[in-house]
Amino acid sequence: MTYKHLNLEERHYIQISLKDKMNQTDIAKSLNRSQSSISREIARNKGQRGYRYQQADNRAKSRHQEKEKAIKLTPEKKAKIDHYLKEDWSPEQICGWFKKEAEIDLHHETIYRYILDDKQSGGVLYKHLRHQNKTYRKRYGSAHNRSSNGIRDRVDIEQRPAEANNRTRVGDWEGDTIIGKNHKGAIVTLDERVSKLRLAMPTGGKKADKVRDAIIKLFEPLKGFVLTLTLDNGKEFAYHSEVADKLDCATYFAKPYHSWERGQNENSNGLLRQYFPKSMELMDVTKQSVFEAVHKLNSRPRKCLGYKTPYEVFEELTGISKKDLAVMHL
Fold first, then answer.
1. 274 plus 193 within the same structural domain
2. pTM for this one?
3. What's phi and psi for 302, nearest 5 deg?
4. What does the pLDDT look like over 79-137, one tens digit per residue?
């Protein structure tokens, strides 16, 4: 049965009936409509002065016209959407790209509907959505990791300079590790606070010397753009002073139990888990596979960057291109 929209005459009847204190059930029966249709009509079109039929009719027509003006997905647009979904972009990021690069104001709900239609037809585009049926829980670590762990020469985040706190310059980084299943293997992760650029490298384990060496290898080619590094309180960062001396930078530590003080890094670790889930051991993860995953993250346009990518913003700020970064870190 095809739904027929309310017309002006029916809306006039609703207005009169409401003034006469008739309830919605009786109005629905009089118009041979469902009670839910009448309830929805009143809720959607009621103004500050109550339900007025002419205003309600104008609002309904306006919404209908907006739907008709909605951008249709042409084969060319679908091809672009398919491509970027397979690169693990979110529908919001794809819409941002369309607006920035093609001046097309596409709504993310349109893409979600397209993905749903594809799934119902047996397609697999939905598998590229980052949070299909689960939410990411931030890793706060075990109790001993969340204490200060007696790390020597530890400097609290409260002493970090205002420029780093306010993101007014390039070169302030956040760091942590993600750990494999059964504590087998680890990946060091580093995030620049302004450009959102991510660097990462497998360490084979969580020992402090391996973590120190990985951080230095990642940062040494960027030495002039490493001013501060804010870390988690894990024992793997016990050699932070050696990192600071080698790179001529300052290291700071978030407060125990305050992982949000490295919020960017925590969030990006959740995104990296798309490629290296908690159910996966990380002992045999290769440098190449980590670089490829990080490359995808750095290639995604970010709303907070005006839908530029971290690569683009980092190059604007430093003159270092993604090709340069690839040479440095492969």
1. yes
2. 0.67
3. -115, 135
4. 999 999 999 899 999 999 998 888 888 888 889 989 999 999 999 999 988 765 443 34
- Distance (Å) of CA 36 to CA 29, 104, 170, 186, 191: 11, 36, 55, 55, 50
Cβ–Cβ < 8 Å for 235, 147: no
Burial class (CB in 10 A: 0-12, 13-18, 19+), 217: middle
Looking at the fold, whether 204 and 253 belong to one and the same domain comes out as yes
Q: In the chain, count of helices (H) and strands (E)?
A: 15, 5
Q: In what helix (H) or strand (E) does residue 64 lie, and over which residues does it extend?
A: helix 53-68
Strands 250-253 and 186-192, by their bridges, are unpaired
pLDDT tens string 231-241 = 988 899 999 99
Residues comprising the chain, all counted: 330
**Using an 8 Å Cβ cutoff, are 247 and 155 in contact?**
no
Q: CA 15 to CA 51: how far, in whole Å?
A: 6
* E strand or H helix at 173: strand 172-179
Same domain? 182 vs 315: yes
